[in-house]
């Protein structure tokens, strides 16, 4: 918004020319999102406590959670998402389709999570929205986002392969004379969006555990968006140039700023939990970042913590149903380490460290091709 209002006045308004630069607008996007969330949370937490909108602790969870986390308000993702959206609208270019695709998708996934959280609180049950309806909602939001991006020619139905130079899967021309199989690309994207959205949701089980890797992943895709949106950098690194994706840098880093504001109150011991309105939305947003920057497969590495958490649940369920035995003491895997006696802060920090290492390895793929 400010770009469109102030840049045309660059000849008459001193300093207005700085709005031309993504780096300047990104820095202020971070500050804006951080300020909004940090300012909103105290009042939001008080109001949620007054309304008794508290997190419903699952009965089969660790005993320490049932004793220590009862009474902590939920839906903390609301101010976080609001901060990102306001920062994006203020500092982003509103004539770039990617900005609207990402913002609308983020709000769409947040709406699904909000319904889930609301049902849990109103019914005083940890069940919430039925799993099948949650997945239907995730698929619907994802299909609209990916479908519109393809229709608007923002992205191509192509999957780049990390670490390999000039290697990609072109679904619209797999081989000479092959039919257009772009629908397979859409299917892959939808699978990825559901997986990462639920992966972040599963990771959100300890104070600050999910938001750390979310910020690391968002910062990673902020870097990728910047270089992918710069023709010179993209050519040098031999990655796909995506016109307009540089504007996603502002949103990615705004997510980092809003995440810091949330973490101030979510750090152990947490004053508020993000709830599904936060975790489902943040996971879906990371997936949209991956799609719009044409680094979809890389998300499995960037968000490796979320993949690990989701995989631990799948492994546990499959093992118990087929062998009658559990692989982990409890799933997701962070509960396994709790059962082994690790303190909550130790688990959180170590998972953050792994997330940072994975992000650095992922960024190295931009050059190792």
Short description:
By secondary structure, the chain is mainly alpha-helical. The protein has one domain (2-299). The protein contains 15 helices and two strands.
List descriptors.
two-stranded antiparallel ribbon; mainly alpha; 369 residues
Fold blueprint:
Elements (H helix, E strand, L loop, with lengths): L1 H5 L15 H29 L12 H6 L8 H15 L5 H27 L7 H21 L6 E3 L7 E3 L11 H22 L7 H18 L2 H7 L10 H19 L8 H18 L6 H4 L1 H20 L9 H7 L4 H21 L5
Antiparallel strand pairs: 1-2
Helix pairs in contact: 2-4, 2-10, 4-5, 4-10, 4-11, 5-6, 5-11, 6-7, 6-11, 7-11, 7-13, 8-10, 8-11, 8-15
Can you describe what's shown?
It is built from 15 helices and 2 strands. The protein has 369 residues and is mainly alpha-helical. A two-stranded antiparallel sheet has the order 1-2. The relative contact order is 0.15.
The biggest beta sheet, please? 2 strands, antiparallel
Radius of gyration: 21 Å
Return residue spans where pLDDT drops below 50 for at least 5 consecutive residues. none
Give the count of structural domains: 1
Return the string of H and E elements: HHHHHHEEHHHHHHHHH
Instruction: Give the overall silhouette.
Output: globular
How are strands sequenced across the largest beta sheet? 1-2
Q: Total helix count? A: 15
Mean pLDDT: 92
Our measurement of the CA-to-CA distance between the termini, rounded to an integer number of angstroms, reads 38 Å
Give the helix/strand class: mainly alpha
Tell me the strand percentage band.
Answer: under 5%
Helix content: 55-70%
> What is the count of β-strands?
2
